[in-house]
Amino acid sequence: MTAVDIDLLVFPFVEMLSDLNQVEVNPVTAGFAQVGEELLTDVDLLIGADICFRPPMVRGGSRRSRGYLADR
Questions:
Q1: Do 66 and 18 meet the contact criterion of CB atoms below 8 Å apart?
Q2: What is the DSSP annotation of 48-72?
Q3: In sequence order, what are the residues at sequence separation of 6 or more whose Cβ sits closer than 8 angstroms to the Cβ of residue 4?
Q4: Which pLDDT band holds residue 13 (cuts at 50, 70, 90)?
């Protein structure tokens, strides 16, 4: 499984969620325009989302991720 995002700050959350779900995720830093054929080879399912981090969401997520990262 591959996670693509242009924002490096997203990947600690990706790592946390992949650990909790017991899956391996390959992080790739790229914008949509940089996603090429080599990344899409053998892809069965492609999901795209644009997440806007509003202050209340970030505060709660930051507390959870700090607790998670402190346990590592």
A1: no
A2: -------HHHHHHHHHHHHHHHHT-
A3: 28, 29, 30, 35, 39
A4: confident
Is the CB of residue 11 less than 8 Å from the CB of residue 3?
yes
DSSP 19-48: HHTT---EEEE--GGG--HHHHTT-S----
- What tens digit of pLDDT does each residue of 26-66 get? 999 998 889 889 888 988 988 887 776 666 655 555 555 66
DSSP-assigned letter for residue 6: S
Cα–Cα distance between 43 and 40 in angstroms, integer? 5
